[in-house]
Design goal:
There is one protein chain. Helix content is 34%, strand content 0%. It is an all-alpha fold. It has a single domain (24-139), classed as Cytochrome Bc1 Complex, Chain D, domain 2, CATH 1.10.760.10. α6 (86-95) crosses α7. The radius of gyration is 15 Å and the shape is globular. The two termini are 18 Å apart. Mean pLDDT is 85; it is low at 4-20. Heme C binds at residues 3, 48, 54-56, 58-60, 74-75, 77, 80, 89, 92-93, 96, 100, 103-106, 108, 135.
């Protein structure tokens, strides 16, 4: 199965959604660091393996967690750094719904405001910007 995003999907991201975002989307990427700093790949790897905190391994497989703990409903992230640029990876981790509004993957940088979300989570992004940068710094090291 291919998980490529079509140009039509990209073109349908409303300009207003991009304008209100606290970061700039260029094409299918966020080229600039969300914090202005480079993340720490070792912290990113640890975070990705922590299924209670980042949730990544609930859905994804890859070299960051015990094989028997990995989900298979999302693309394997092995070799990701050879397939996508740093900026492309950043947009997918920060806000995949900008590319695919139907995606099962949470938009990590968007704070959920829906009333059906428990108070502990409401209004807070799932991960801090610095944590997203740590994950991006780790994922770019995954080469084929
Ligand atoms: C609830 C399931 C789920 C969780 C949790 C999740 N993802 Fe995803 N992710 C997906 C799915 C499904 C896709 C496929 C693209 C789509 O849905 O449009 C995807 C796509 C991606 C992609 C693009 C992969 C490619 O080959 O193009 C990256 C990078 C990614 N996820 C990273 C992460 C990271 C990092 C985390 C944790 C911080 C995470 N995901 C958590 C379901 C999930």
């Amino acid at each position: 199965m291919k998980w490529l995003f079509s140009a039509a999907v990209l073109a349908s991201v409303p300009a207003s959604a991009q304008g209100s975002a606290p970061y700039e989307i260029h094409g299918d990427a966020i080229p600039a660091s969300l914090t202005g700093q480079v993340g720490d790949p070792a912290r990113g790897e640890k975070l990705m393996g922590d299924r209670h905190r980042s949730l990544c391994s609930l859905c994804h497989s890859g070299p960051f967690a015990e094989p028997h703990m990995q989900g298979t409903i999302a693309p394997d992230l092995s070799g990701l750094g050879s397939r996508l640029s740093e900026g492309q990876i950043r947009l997918r981790v920060a806000n995949i719904k900008a590319l695919n509004p139907q995606s099962l993957m949470p938009s990590y940088l968007e704070a959920p405001t829906r009333a059906d979300i428990s108070e502990d989570w409401r209004g807070k992004p799932i991960l801090e910007k610095a944590e997203i940068e740590d994950i991006v710094a780790y994922l770019v090291t995954l080469k084929e």
